[in-house]
Amino acid sequence: MKKVFQRLLVFFISMPLLIIILICLPWLNHLAFSIVVLTVSVLGALEVQNILKQKGLLIPAPEAAVVGSLGPVFAILQVNLGLNGDLAVLLFCLGAAWVLFSRVFSRHDKLDGYINYSAAGLTVLIYPGFLMGWIIRMGLFPNAGITILVYLLISFLNDAAAWAAGMLFGKNNRGIVDASPNKSVAGFIGGTAVSIIIGIGACYVFPGVFGSSVIPAPLAGAFLGLACGIAATLGDLGESAIKRSAKVKDSGQLIPGRGGMLDSIDSLALAAPVYYLVFSLLFIRS
C-alpha cells in the first residue's frame, strides 16, 4: 500500500510540474523543458551504465554521462541554434565513432575489454539519450507546447492505466512475457485504450493542432494513440528485459515507489521517435 501511495504521489507531483515548465516557459523553443529532458537522459544513462556493469560491460560513469548526453545536446543545438539536421546526425555519428575507436591505442592487457567497452558505450549512446532527443525535436513543431503535452499524456497515462488495469483485472492473465511476469493482458489493453482515447480526444480539444490532411482527424488520433501506446509498452518491457538479464530489480533508487530514473522514462524513450514520426506523417500539412 505504501508503494501505491508513493507512485501516486510521484505522478501527481511530476506531471503538473512538467506541464508548468512546458506551458509557462515556452521561450527558445521550450529550452527549459529541453534541459529537463537532457538532465533525465543523463541520469538514465548513468543507470544503464550501472546495469551493464553487472554483466561485465564496462564504461566509466563520467564517460557514460557525456556519451549519454550527446543525443539530447545535438537535438537542443538543432532546435535552438538552427543546426542543420544532417549536421546534427553527423555529429552524433562522430560520437559513435569515438566510442568505437577511442581505445584503439590501448595497451595489450586492456584490449581484452575493448568489445565490452564498445558495446556498453554504444548502448548508452542510444539508450535513453538518442531516443529522448526526439522529445526535444518536437519543439520545432507548430504549437509545440500542445504537441508535446499530448505526447506526455499518451505516454504517462498509458503507463498509469496499464498499472491500474493490471492491479484490478490482471490477476489471472499475467506472465505472458517472461521479461516482466507481473505485466498482464488486462494492463496492456487498459493502457493502450487510454492512449487511443487521448489521441482521439486531442483531435477534438485541439483541432488547430491535430487536424489531419491525410485521413480523418479522429482516425489519425486513434492511430497516433495506438502506435505510441504500443511503443510505450515495448519500452517498458525492453527495460525490464535489460534489468532481468542483469538480475537487478530497479534501475536505481532515485524515485520513491518507482525505482530509478530509467524506470520512469523507459516508456517515454521508445514512444518519442514513434510519436514524432506518426505526428509528422499525419498532422503536419505540407
Explain this structure.
- With 286 residues, the protein is an all-alpha fold.
- It is built from 9 helices and no strands.
- Helix 2 runs antiparallel to helix 3 (61-80) and helix 2 packs antiparallel against helix 5 (114-137).
- The longest helix is centred in the last third of the chain and has 30 residues, at 217-246.
- The relative contact order is 0.13.
Order of helices and strands: HHHHHHHHH
Q: How far do the termini sit from each other?
A: 51 Å
What class would the helix/strand composition place it in?
mainly alpha
Share in helix: over 70%
* Number of helical segments with 4 or more residues: 9
Taking all residues together, what is the mean pLDDT?
Answer: 92
> β content, as a range?
under 5%
**What overall form do the CA principal axes indicate?**
globular
Number of strands: 0
Short characterization:
This protein has 286 residues and is mainly alpha-helical.
Features:
286 residues, mainly alpha, 0% strand, globular
